[in-house]
Design a protein that fits this description.
globular, 2,3-Dihydroxybiphenyl 1,2-Dioxygenase, domain 1, aromatic hydrocarbons catabolism, catechol 2,3-dioxygenase activity, 19% helix, 2 domains, 6 helices, 307 residues, metal-binding, VOC_core, 35% strand
């Protein structure tokens, strides 16, 4: 099953006010600004990430996600996966090296859900920020805000989940870790992983293609999630839900919005997944408990506010 995709590598988000967005992602969430380019894009990373960036902010008139990128093991694998994608039926666009600063060539394709993804093999290795690679300290002492540990996953809304599943599982080598089934046994949510994490990307059935629900960042502890909630209130940041626990994945979570209306999550904990694990199944009639384990009721805004 393994095809050579290693992990999520980056997400590019559209923002309405680049200065306000940088304050949100750097000052509040604790990401580190690494670079800017002549398109006005800003590159950021979390402190434990070893590559140059994981979040790219692009000024635009409409919020949302441009694309999500995954890193593959080497350039030969990148070439082979490009051929596999084309054989499956995806049009593949090659983006030249350095179109994103510090990143090698990328292969971009659109999933049946309407979302754009890309694969790449090379990115400038900067190492963890603020700590040495020899005898490293436990953490940098000058981190700000929520002190996000890493970019973790995206949740995306769109249609054609079965075809998207086929693409990610049978072409890219992901595994189904968790799912939600309706009364007819049809899958209406799928949580896919290419690592030990419960999900590296997830899809929810939605009639409109290509919608963005949230980008998620990992924190170390439940106490850090509660501290994030305090910071959200201290800064009058728009909150969606939490702190609470998910039934799906069992992560401990809080959701909030950047100044452009893009939803963010910070979370800790959550289940793990090995390739021999069978998928965990939730039923749609229990979706309230699946999403918000404590309240056991759906927050309409959580389901309907998308960018």
């Amino acid at each position: 099953m393994k095809k050579g995709v290693m992990r999520p590598g980056h997400v590019q988000l559209r923002v309405l006010d680049i200065d306000a967005a940088v304050r949100h992602y750097a000052d509040l969430m604790g990401l580190i600004e690494m670079d800017r380019d002549d398109q006005g894009r800003v590159y950021l990373k979390a402190w434990t990430e070893v590559d140059k960036f994981s979040v790219v902010l692009r000024p635009d008139d409409e919020p949302g996600m441009d694309f999500m990128g995954f890193k593959v093991i080497d350039d030969a694998t990148l070439t082979q996966l490009g051929k596999d994608l084309q054989a499956w039926g995806c049009a593949v666009e090659e983006i030249p090296a350095e179109e994103l600063k510090g990143c090698g060539r990328r292969l971009r394709f659109q999933a049946p859900s309407g979302h754009f993804f890309e694969l790449y093999a090379e990115k400038e290795y900067t190492g963890k920020w603020g700590v040495s690679n020899v005898n490293p300290e436990a953490w940098p002492r000058d981190l700000t805000g929520m002190k996000a540990v890493r970019f973790d996953h995206c949740l995306l809304y769109g249609d054609e989940l079965a075809a998207t599943y086929d693409l990610f599982v049978n072409v890219l080598g992901f595994y189904l870790a968790e799912q939600v089934l309706d009364d007819n046994g049809d899958r209406i949510a799928q949580f896919l992983t290419v690592s030990m994490k419960e999900h590296d990307v997830a899809f929810i059935m939605h009639p409109e293609k290509g919608k963005f629900h949230h980008a998620s960042f990992y924190l170390d502890t439940w106490e850090q999630v509660l501290r994030a909630a305090d910071l959200i209130s201290m800064t009058d940041t728009s909150i969606d839900i939490g702190p609470t626990r998910h039934g799906l994945t069992h992560g401990q979570t809080i959701y909030f919005f950047d100044p452009s209306g893009n939803r963010n999550e910070v979370f800790c904990g959550g289940d793990y997944h090995y390739p021999d694990h069978k998928p965990v199944t939730w039923m749609a009639k229990d979706l309230g408990k699946a999403i918000f384990y404590h309240d056991r009721q759906l927050n309409e805004r959580f389901l309907s506010v998308l960018t």
